[in-house]
Amino acid sequence: MLLGIDIGTSSTKGLLVLPDGRVVASASRAYPVDRPHPGWSEQDPARWWEATVAVVGELLSHTEADATQIRAIGVSGQMHGSVFLDQAALDRAGSGRIHAIHPALLWNDQRTATQCESIERAMGGRVAIVRAVGNAALPGFTLPKLLWLREHEPDAYSRLAMLVNPKDFINLQLTGLPSTDVGDASGTLLFDPATRAWAPAMLDALGIEPGLLPPIYESAAIVGGLTPWAAGELGLRPATPVVAGSGDNQCGAIGAGVVAPGMVAATLGTSGVIYAHASRPRLDLPSRAPDTDAELPPPGRVHTMCAAAGADSWCNTGCMLAAAGALQWARDTIAPAVEIQVLIDEAAIAPIGCEGLVFMPHLSGERCPYPDPRARGAWVGLTMRHTRAHMVRAVLEGVAFTMVQMLDIVRSLPVGVEHARLGGGGARSRLWRQIHADVFGLPVSIPATEQGPAFGAALLAGVGSGMWETVVDACGQTILLRETVEPSHEADQYLHIRAVHTALYARLRETFDSLGSLAPGNDE
Question: What residues contact 497, with CB distance under 8 A and at least 6 apart?
């Protein structure tokens, strides 16, 4: 069996997987996110290890599995989080529980806008940053968090010996050896996905010592074996191989079988993610069309990263901040006593385009397709004719319209897109699946078993331990599709309302800025 572990934002999940892809056991352990100030998001990394120990123990007890049956371990994790370690932690790793010198700043922490501006100045603008590391400087990434620690916690920074991401912290506990993989490293702003190595230009410009960063591996490479101490903590066999693993987006794509050019993973979780596999690194550097003076969109709207499928694989990803989260908000706001499925059933009766009603899903600001923290949500076009069914369907359509905007950016790079795999809680709705197939203009498939990043991490462990030769082989032998939804004959009806929706953000941007200045806690 293979052990896959995912260090999520709200819980750690573990799976035991057989060579044919069957999941024989799963377990999870929840933990809180600390928010000591508005916009801050932190966790104590020690909670992740405690949750990992609990999850593995539950998996073994549920299956009565012998520790010798666990062939290898793969770990996935929330990306961009910053774990700050001193030399004492590195010296203790693998022989005892280690502690960070500061709470980990998570992917959704928003305190580092000033540091992002400093990075742009140091590098000579956003285009230069995208050319150097494939991505724009956004508060979610790791480098701005490191600069924040240097500026605001100088005593802690003076003790800093190594910066790692969440899943790398767990691998350090497992093996005693520091490491990261090309996928997680791609989300730090310190790594060049084209060369699959740390980026000297960024390190030099920001004064970051290379020694603070761990060695980099391909995602299926073995980074070490379980130390006797870690094996005793988990009830597993010492020297069990541990592979590098990858970030949750990369491992989630493997778990969905998105490992070849032309394939896209579209995830409708709280946020919405477009992940497109690519055979070469493609940068989001928009250029002006001939004979036009239209304003250029900002560079780096979608991210360029290494994929976990091997040394010849990359990906482009975009994330909107409220997808299924927008539907949950709508239900909680306009119909808190009604089950979501009842609302979706009502929405299925409303006509395409909702009789001229559109929904802007930017309820938490936005990351992609508009990197704008002041973007706002809105129903636009309400009349006395509109009912709750129209309003809910507008939410479903508005999320799909925003998802396809991200998909269109990917297509423009250019990255070929032929087929989508849909996942996340929102994919359980047949209506929403059909809307996405129609709006994407693509067949949309649903994997037979959606176990997320932990499943992808388990497949990486299988490749690293020799169960399969390649990640593509692993996916081909384990992943089945439950359903494929083709675009319907009604797909063309979305074209006009989608165009209206796409144009709205530019028309409302100044209004969003004005409204943002009125928000509680804003000093402007």
Answer: 352, 353, 354, 356, 358, 397
